[in-house]
Amino acid sequence: MDNLYIAWAIGSKDIVDALKNKNTRTNIIMLVFIVVFFYWSSTPRPFDKKIDVAIYDEGHSSLTDLPTELEDGYRFAFHEASSLQEMERMMGYKQLGVVIPPDFDQVLEAGGEPELAGYILWVHRTKVSDLELKYSEKFSELLGRPVRVDIGENLVIPQPDVETSTVHFTILFAVLWMAVTIVPHLMMEERQTRTMEALLVSPASAGQVVMGKALAGAFYVLLSGGLFFALNWAYVTHWGLALLAFLCTALFSIGIALLLGVFVSNPKQMTLWMIPIVVLLLVPAFFAQEPNLTANLKAIFSWLPTTALLEITQFSFSTHAPLSQLLTNLAIALGSTVVVYAIVIWKVRRSDR
Q1: What is the pTM of this model?
Q2: Of 95, 162, 207, 224, which one is least surrounded by beta carbons within 10 A?
Q3: Which CATH number fits domain 50-156: 3.30.2450, 1.10.150, 3.30.300, 3.40.50?
Q4: Residues forming CATH 3.40.50 domain(s) in the chain
């Protein structure tokens, strides 16, 4: 309790001091804009005029042979699958999945109203009624007669290795960016104002100083995390795992930011180092699951803590988390975080000499 009290005394002062800083307020506003922009750009929009449809045709119907352009500007893009399971996997970045029954053409020829089984992604589960109406209308326009698309409870939750958006990357970027734009200055200002020496000769230990700075950073990281979950709650299938992934991401990002703060001596150097470090941590992680990536690069990228954090977050948006992969990723992420904080504490102790 004494450790927490001392750390909170240091952290609460840093939170207030940072909020008084114009650059901090600017960074917060900029991050809010970035998170909202990524949310808008990466979320599949089921009401767009281009309707990407994954199709499993049980009877080899003539539906996909029809013209796909409608008079009101809507356009279908059909992607055929050989099985229901393949169709569900193909729906990663598509708005709709459709199973065409084997008697589809016969019902049309008899003047009946055929019914298509529609599938949508889990993230759109609150829009089922609206999407049934929209897709029924558009398929009816395409065929020139009434067609019903019945979605019901056909909600596709992606498999752990299937992406449906870049939301998992957004949370990593938002947390890391918030941390490295604010937290390093907490360390640099202590050195520039020579208050670090005063802290280290006070009852506060090096570990407590680092904990206090980490708590101050956690306050700002929670702002970005809260905004992220407020915008992207619909993606989450396992909230416990999502919060664990966020906690691990926050701890690692704050640790990297503190590491920058203890090794960089002025704002110019900070700008020089910050962007390359963020790029090195984010770009390989973003491309780690690229199918065209060579096996050697995939193996190297898989050991990056940011790659591990991305996968843990993606598992929280999926049907389940493969236990062996989850434990391996947790070990990589937490092991890297412990190493980073150990280096920070060591460096702070050396500054007392």
Answers
A1: 0.85
A2: 207
A3: 3.40.50
A4: 50-156
User: What is the band of 334 on the pLDDT scale with cuts at 50, 70, 90?
Assistant: very high
Token reading at 70: 């409608």
Give mean pLDDT, residues 327-345.
Answer: 95
Q: Give residue 336's pLDDT band: very low, low, confident or very high (50, 70, 90).
A: very high
Cα 82 to Cα 59: distance, rounded to the nearest angstrom:
11
Of all helices (H) and strands (E), which one includes residue 120? strand 115-121
Can you spell out the DSSP letters for 33-48?
A: HHHHHHHHHHS--TTS
Query: Are the CB atoms for 46 and 120 separated by under 8 Å?
Result: yes
Residue 24: closest CA among 167, 182, 221, 202: 182
pLDDT, tens digit, 9 for 90 and up, residues 75-103: 888 899 999 999 999 988 888 999 999 98
What gap in Å lies between CA 136 and CA 148, rounded to an integer? Answer: 5
Q: Label the pairing between strands 115-121 and 96-100.
A: antiparallel
Exposure of 143 in the CB half-sphere (CA atoms within 13 A): 25
3-state secondary structure of 280: helix
